[in-house]
Every structure is written in structure tokens, then in C-alpha cells.
Write a structure and sequence with these properties.
Order of helices and strands: HHHHHHEEHHHHHHHHHHHHHH
Largest sheet: 2 strands, antiparallel
Number of strands: 2
Strand order of the largest sheet: 1-2
Shape: globular
Helix content: 55-70%
Radius of gyration: 23 Å
Distance between the termini: 43 Å
Length: 432
């Protein structure tokens, strides 16, 4: 079985189980099947209206760098009140003027329809920017659909065209232009929802991709690191931010994810549960499955009682390959070490950003605690545990003979002084 087959098996047959409650387990299993079927059905490549594209994307700026549990309730309140129901209204100056709320926003705030993340001016400005960009996005998406229907482009060219559209939304430089609040990753998420052949390179995809056999060797080649140089837990994730994100995606993430898609197709993964034949649904399924190896999901919505990583971390006789258990342990240990380091960096940033003597004093007290020798010792311990977990994962993967066979492009992921990759990005020339 491939890694995607194993994760699919865990999600469907184990993560839906409710201990000592067979009836609920059956309900949860069906709920999971229904949820994935709904995602795949809505992600079919079809002609899209501007309203459909608007409805699929307006909430994304509220979830950027926000936990779903934090932003979700505010988004659902606004959705129920119909605040974002009308695309034209949100795109108008009555909604926002720059980052200054217009009358429509002021009224929704006064009525309690906009609260929490949905009442933050800069996030509302990003939703407004997206509303204004929707007609241009719709034109490019529907043009992509027409080219696919006409069979004028091959599979590789279609995928490159899709990535070019994501780059245009997230970085700029094309007919759509940079959309405020939509980075490259969010743009990929939107286009995947619309049925285009792209993957969402979120933090968990980046971490799992970088842990697959041989990928770290290719990462060192792509960024010209020493052969024995350590590749940090969040190295690939850090390269999927900003203007160079599309380069890192093309160089590492896309080839590896394509290899996983090919393996899933060859082995007929999930063919009994889902119709993956329509265009680009198998990439969508692989992307969904890989993300849900580690991401948290709402139990009553997705039917998942726990994450696969949590099951494997505490699993006894669960019949899965040792490398998958080792991967779960590395993700857990790496996340713990990562959070400890980030906590120190955030504390330092709060001191710099303090706007009053009281804020600065509180921030400095917090920073002083994190700089104590005991705190540093704990960070060192967590880093050592993460490194040991990584070595155990490498050993388990080697012992199991686990392989992936990405077709990597040539060249480097770090931009040269001339500002060009060493290999050709053909679809960029096709933009209008």
C-alpha cells in the first residue's frame, strides 16, 4: 500500500471509530464519506459564475493565520446574517474605502453581525479586494476550463497554467494582479476548490512532503545547501511565503504531490469509495488526504473522532507500517520544538511592538521567563527529541523500502541575480 492508501485507510476505518459506541462509529464513518464526496463534487472543473467564485473564497481572509475555532464562529454569524451575500455590495465603496469601514460595515457591526475576526478592518479590506478581483478571476478560470475542454493543452501545460493563475492572485504580474490578503497558498486553496490541478501547500503538506524519502536531498540541491546540512522542521514551509513561493512550489511540492497522485492512481486508492475519474479529482483527493493526516477537523462536520497522528502516536497493535508511526512521532516532536522556538521569537516581537510602558513591562517579564536557563534547556531538549524522532523516521523508511519518484525540474529554487529560474516556466508566457 502507498502512503496515501494507508492514510485513507486510517481516516476512514479508524479515525471515525467511537470507543464503545458502534452506532456512532457507523454514523461517523458515513459522515466522513459524505463530507469527502461533497468536497470532490464541489471541486469538479466546470464553468463558474462570479457568484460561485465569490462564495467559495470570501471567508478565506478571515482564516489566514487564524485558528478555525477562533474565526469559524464569527464567519458563520456573518454568513447567517447575509453580510457577505451580495458580491456587488461588498465590492462597493459602501463596504470599505481602503481600510476604513463604510456604512454597510458600520451597520453590520452595530447589529452584532460582524464580530471577532470578521470585524477587523484589515481583514474586511482584504475581503473587499477579493470582491473587486472576482470578475478577473472568473475570466481566467473559465478560460482555463475552455482550454481544457478544447484539449489544446497537455496535462503538464494545464497544470502550469493553473499554477500561473495562482501566482498571479498571490504574487501578481498577470491579468488578475495581486489580490490583497491572498498569498500563494491561499490562492492555491481557492483554485483547488474550483477544480484546477493545484495543491494547497499548507504547513502540514510542506512538513510531510519534506519528510518523504529523498526529498530532503532534493531540497538541499534546490537551495544549494551542503550535503549534510540539517533541514529544519519548517524549512519548506518558510519558502512558501512571499514572492518566491511559486518557485518553491514548482521545484519541490508539485513534483512530490504529483508522484503521490500517480501512485494513488496506479494502486486504485479509494476507488471503491469515491469517483476520482473526473478531471483533476484525484489530485484533490490526495491533497485532502495528506492534509488530514495531521490537521484537526470538526468532529460533527467531518466525522473524525481523532487525527491519524494522534492514533499512531499512542497506537498499540494497529497494523500500519513502522515508517508511518515514526512519521507521526516526528511531526509531534517537531511541532513541540517548533512551538517552543516560536514562543521565544513572539515574545521578543511583543517587546518591540509594545506601544505603552505597561505593555512593554508585561512583554519584558514574559521574555525574561523564556530566556531563563531552564527555558533554554527545555528548548534544547525538545530540539534533541525532534532530531532523534527524525533519525528514527529515516531509519524506519529505509527499512521499509519506502519510495516516491518525483519528476523534479532542473535548477535552483533560490532566485539568481537575473531573477530567473534555471528551468523554463512555459505557462507564464501564455498569460494575457
Amino acid at each position: 500500500m502507498t502512503i496515501i492508501a494507508h492514510i485513507h485507510h486510517l481516516l476512514l476505518n479508524y479515525c471515525t471509530l467511537c470507543e464503545h459506541n458502534e452506532a456512532r462509529s457507523q454514523v461517523q464513518r458515513q459522515r466522513y464519506l459524505d463530507r469527502v464526496t461533497r468536497i470532490l463534487t464541489s471541486s469538479r472543473l466546470v464553468q463558474r459564475t462570479e457568484e460561485q467564485i465569490w462564495n467559495l473564497g470570501w471567508d478565506k481572509p478571515f482564516f489566514a493565520y487564524n485558528a478555525a475555532g477562533t474565526a469559524g464562529p464569527a464567519v458563520e454569524r456573518a454568513r447567517a446574517a447575509g453580510v457577505f451575500a451580495c458580491l456587488d455590495a461588498v465590492a462597493s465603496p459602501q463596504f470599505m474605502i481602503g481600510e476604513v469601514p463604510g456604512p454597510l460595515v458600520e451597520d453590520a457591526v452595530a447589529r452584532g453581525h460582524l464580530a471577532g475576526a470578521c470585524a477587523v478592518p484589515f481583514r474586511l479590506a482584504r475581503v473587499h479586494a477579493y470582491a473587486r478581483a472576482v470578475p478577473r478571476i472568473a475570466h481566467q478560470v473559465n478560460r482555463f476550463y475552455d482550454d481544457w475542454q478544447a484539449a489544446v493543452l497537455g496535462a503538464d501545460e494545464l497544470q502550469e497554467r493553473a499554477v500561473a493563475i495562482a501566482e498571479d492572485i498571490g504574487v501578481g504580474g498577470g491579468p488578475i494582479g495581486k489580490v490583497d490578503g491572498f498569498g500563494f497558498t491561499t490562492a492555491c486553496h481557492l483554485l483547488a476548490d474550483l477544480g484546477l490541478p493545484v495543491f494547497k501547500p499548507d504547513i502540514w503538506v510542506c512538513r510531510i512532503v519534506s519528510a518523504l524519502p529523498g526529498v530532503r536531498t532534493e531540497i538541499r540541491r534546490a537551495w544549494r545547501l551542503a550535503e549534510d546540512a540539517p533541514v529544519s522542521f519548517d524549512f519548506l514551509e518558510s519558502k512558501l511565503v512571499g514572492g518566491c513561493a511559486p518557485d518553491a512550489y514548482r521545484r519541490i511540492v508539485q513534483p512530490v504531490m504529483n508522484a503521490l497522485v500517480r501512485d494513488a492512481q496506479v494502486h486504485g486508492v479509494a476507488a471503491a469509495e469515491f469517483d476520482l475519474v473526473p478531471a483533476f479529482l484525484r489530485p484533490r483527493f490526495v491533497d485532502w488526504t495528506l492534509v488530514h493526516f495531521a490537521i484537526s477537523a470538526e468532529t460533527e462536520v467531518y466525522g473524525l473522532e481523532r487525527r491519524p497522528v494522534d492514533m499512531l502516536r499512542s497506537a498499540g497493535e494497529l497494523s500500519v507500517p513502522g515508517y508511518l508511526k515514526a512519521l507521526a512521532l516526528w511531526l509531534d516532536a517537531g511541532q513541540a520544538s517548533h512551538e517552543a522556538v516560536v514562543a521565544l521569537k513572539n515574545a521578543e516581537a511583543r517587546v518591540r511592538r509594545a506601544k505603552s510602558p505597561e505593555q512593554r513591562e508585561r512583554a519584558q517579564r514574559r521574555l525574561a521567563l523564556l530566556r531563563l536557563p531552564a527555558a533554554q534547556t527545555r528548548r534544547d531538549e525538545l530540539a534533541a527529541q525532534a532530531q532523534a524522532a527524525w533519525m528514527a523516521h529515516e531509519a524506519a523508511s529505509t527499512a521499509a523500502g519506502q519510495t516516491v519518484a518525483p519528476l523534479y525540474p532542473e535548477g535552483f529554487a533560490r532566485r539568481e541575480p537575473a531573477g530567473a529560474w534555471a528551468y523554463k516556466r512555459a505557462a507564464l508566457a501564455r498569460r494575457e
